[in-house]
Write a structure and sequence with these properties.
Blueprint (H helix, E strand, L loop, with lengths): L7 E8 L4 H15 L5 E8 L8 E9 L2 H9 L1 H13 L3 E8 L41 H13 L4 H11 L3 H7 L9 H17 L2 H4 L12 H28 L8 H15 L13 H5 L14 H6 L2 H45 L7 H32 L4 H26 L3 H32 L2
Antiparallel strand pairs: 1-3, 1-4, 2-3
Length: about 475
């Protein structure tokens, strides 16, 4: 199977401001007259917007029937166009021409397609110039499948490593490069944020021994000596707790100022601590009843509560939420809160982008550009915290605890605010004094926004039963 296409003759005109009106009429006439030529099968023209100097770029393309027809046109019609252009416009219009020929796909087997299987564009190599898909359409082996799955991770020159290294070591560089159009070398911002956030929460909250305990051998049973030591330690802690509670009661000037419930609770804790003899002694910091209160009590709302909340949080619904939270307990509530933290951080992104929009009103940047800044900063935040967690675990497993490891962890923690300041300087380009002032304002707004979103995450965890 062989495909053929005639050559394409292209002329690009650079037109000055004073000649653009007359030139537009001239080009239209040239295109219409070209279609009357025997060797031209199609013709078109298009132009760009004016540049800073008011000039436009106009491109004309003429599809010749074949190479012989193009040779005749070069000596006749196209030569006449050049002469007419010089006579009418002189130096106000500059022209440059070239000949383009379509690639030929020679003797392709019938089962292979010279076009992209994804978008249908004619292929010029092993990758499509429009959608980027590789021309090879089938999987050759299991090794190739694994290589495509982990290629970005295993190849040192992949977009993954070209993104992570500047993200960690060059504050604001990714954001600046993306805004200036240098994007193909890096992972997309949203993908970077999502990947690092998922990996961070897996590293931070996934414990193989708790979640996959059946894969590990059980710990050997305690010996008699270890059991005796544990019981002795528990008795010692109980005695210390009882003494502390007695001292606390003695330090109160007027024991009668406490309510009956507070006095009874204090006495019960002292008695429980004094009578604790088993090794399973635990300190009770509060139960579900103390946290959620009495579900049978009527719900009382302040007058300042919005009406839309009053309509939705009725007494019956409040009682149902209270009872469900008691049933699932504090541990499940904590798990629900952890599940909502990624959503809260994601909600925090547009809020902080809005703060940047307010802090930089003269930057002429769109809201999404400020959002891009915080996407990269949060991605860095997840990355540095994940590296800290892995470093702590490595140091603990190798028993390398010491001042050096502690200093490394502290330095990494201090690097986070320094990173934010340097990123603001690199992306927005203002001097140190103005950046420091805006940095302090942004830090305050960030603390307030994080507090609000965390409160919202806790409230949602409570009512999502």
């Amino acid at each position: 199977m062989t495909t053929h296409a005639g050559p394409l003759f292209e002329t690009t005109f650079l037109v000055a401001d004073e000649a653009q009106v007359e030139f537009a009429d001239w080009v239209d006439q040239v295109v219409r007259s070209s279609l009357e030529q025997h060797g031209i099968e199609a013709a078109r023209s298009y132009q760009s917007d004016p540049d800073d100097q008011g000039q436009i770029v106009c491109t004309c393309q003429f599809q010749a029937r074949d190479d012989n027809a193009l040779d005749e046109l070069l000596d006749g019609f196209f030569a006449a166009i050049d002469a007419d252009l010089a006579a009418k416009f002189g130096g106000t219009v500059q022209a440059e021409s070239r000949t383009l020929r379509e690639d030929s796909a020679l003797e392709l087997p019938l089962h292979e397609n010279p076009n992209c299987l994804n978008c249908g564009t004619r292929l010029r190599g092993q990758y499509c110039g429009v959608c980027g898909q590789r021309s090879r359409g089938r999987l050759i082996s299991l090794w190739q499948l694994l290589r495509e799955a982990f290629g970005d991770l295993l190849e040192l020159d992949s977009r993954l490593w070209r993104t992570l290294i500047p993200l960690l070591t060059k504050p604001g560089q990714l954001t600046r490069d993306y805004l200036e159009g240098r994007r193909a070398r890096y992972m997309p911002p949203f993908r970077t944020y999502l990947v690092l956030s998922v990996v961070f929460f897996v590293v931070a909250f996934f414990d193989p021994r708790d979640d996959l305990g059946w894969l590990f051998e059980p710990d050997p049973p305690s010996t008699a000596e270890e059991t005796a030591d544990q019981e002795q330690l528990a008795d010692q802690r109980a005695t210390e707790l009882a003494r502390d509670l007695e001292e606390l009661a003695a330090d109160i000037d007027d024991f009668d100022v406490l309510s009956d419930e507070q006095r009874n609770n204090l006495k019960q804790r002292i008695i429980a601590a004094e009578g604790a003899e088993d090794s399973d002694f635990e300190i009770d910091f509060g139960d579900d009843e103390e946290l959620f209160g009495d579900c049978s009590k009527p719900l009382e709302m302040d007058e300042d509560v919005p009406e839309w909340i009053k309509k939705r949080l009725t007494a019956e619904r409040f009682k149902h939420i209270c009872e469900q939270n008691k049933a699932r307990g504090n541990d499940n509530l904590a798990d629900a809160l952890l599940d909502n933290i990624p959503v809260a951080l994601f909600v925090l992104l547009p809020l902080m982008a809005l703060v940047l929009k307010i802090l930089y009103p003269l930057s002429r940047r769109y809201f999404v550009e400020h959002l891009l800044f915080f996407l990269h900063f949060h991605a860095f935040f997840f990355l540095i915290l994940m590296l800290q967690i892995l470093f702590v675990r490595l140091v603990g497993s190798l028993r390398l605890d010491g001042p050096v490891s502690t200093l490394i962890i502290i330095a990494a923690a201090f690097y986070i605010p320094v990173y934010l300041y340097k990123a603001m300087r690199r992306v927005y380009g203002q001097d140190h004094l103005i950046t420091v002032i805006k940095y302090i304002m942004l830090a305050c707004a960030y603390a307030m926004g994080a507090t609000i979103t965390m409160i919202g995450a806790f409230a949602f965890a409570v009512i999502s039963v």
